[in-house]
Amino acid sequence: MSLLTIATPPNCGLDPQRWNSALDVVRTWTEQDRVPAAAVLVGRHGMTPGPQFFGRQRVDAKSPPLRDDAIFLIASITKPIVAMGAMLLIERGQLTLNDRVTDFLPEFGKKGKHGTTIRNLLTHTSGLPDMLPTNADLRRANAPLSEFVAGTCAVTPDFPPSRSVQYQSMGFAVLAAIMEQVSGMSCAEFLRHEFFQPLGMNDTRLGVPDDWFEGAQPTIDRIAEIRVPPDQVEASDWNWNSRYWRQLGAPWGGLLTTPLDLGQFAQLMLNNGRAGERQLLSPATVRESTGNQLAVMKEVPDEERRFRPWGLGWRLQWASHANSFGDLVSSKTYGHWGATGTLLWIDPEKDSFVMILSTQPLDPNGAPVQRVSNAIVGAFR
Questions:
Q1: pLDDT, tens digit, 9 for 90 and up, residues 66-119
Q2: What pTM, to 2 d.p., does this model score?
Q3: DSSP-H helix ranges across 210-328
Q4: Please, what is the end-to-end C-alpha distance for the chain in angstroms?
Q5: Do the bridges between strand 52-55 and strand 37-44 make them parallel or antiparallel, or are there none, so unpaired?
Q6: How far apart are CA 227 and CA 340, in angstroms?
Q7: Contact between 13 and 45 (Cβ < 8 Å)
């Protein structure tokens, strides 16, 4: 089953000349080696011109062109997908946003964290760190997810819950552990059973299986190699391109997928959780997850609540921030960035989504990707 229909750019509501101009921006990136590889997918009103691929499969300049079945590591775009798994447990009555983490992980209550709730994990208001101080050591040792969770349970938060906002990948490590305890399945298994299989996302994995490495033409050959940042260049046994990282299934940034697979999930959100005859998520869940959750947190600084809002796992449009989703999206837009050079935004007002998946670590100010985002929206009719 596909929620997207392949159609010509005009039938997708795209001006052909402007659409081609937007794609030329990405093509130039790869030709100038600013980005080794990139893929673009746009969805409008349930239709798409299909994924557009640029660049090469590997970082080496002599590498073959990027495959049309390429798989990308999407980094932190993983977070909102994990969040929707947690929200599915909430709509089934198995969790509430105000449940305390210690109700499921008693060991988490150390060092002032007893009051932390599921809501805090989903809105980056827990005070937990983005990465543990021992992150590199754990990865160097090829540690399992349980050790990241144990390390997070032991840390002192940077502020009490609900008092401020601090981006926290480790909150999603804890959230995944709670999901496993409640559902009886690992986070990866739960997402595959509830979302990926029903949506036909057959090339999507949170932690790739051993069989992806087997055979004369292993599936891992389809994974686009990332130009890793300087601190990972000598870390071939644990960097983003390593077998360890690809199999770890980090719930804060380990999802591997294709543009069309991820497009299925984006369209599910635009469809208010409906996939054909099945309601995979309730409309109420989608609505709540994509609204400003900080608005009711009176102790969060006003600047965060008004100008840098978060939904539940989803980042909302930060119009005045360097890392906005672009200058032409509506105020209702939500999405996420990924450190490997990825962006997904969904605009219910325009009934559209845009994803840009690349293999070049994200520019700190996001400007190059924003320019492409603007050019794509400029092609909307």
A1: 999 999 999 999 999 999 999 999 999 999 999 999 999 999 999 999 999 999
A2: 0.97
A3: 243-248, 259-270, 283-289, 302-307
A4: 28
A5: antiparallel
A6: 8
A7: yes
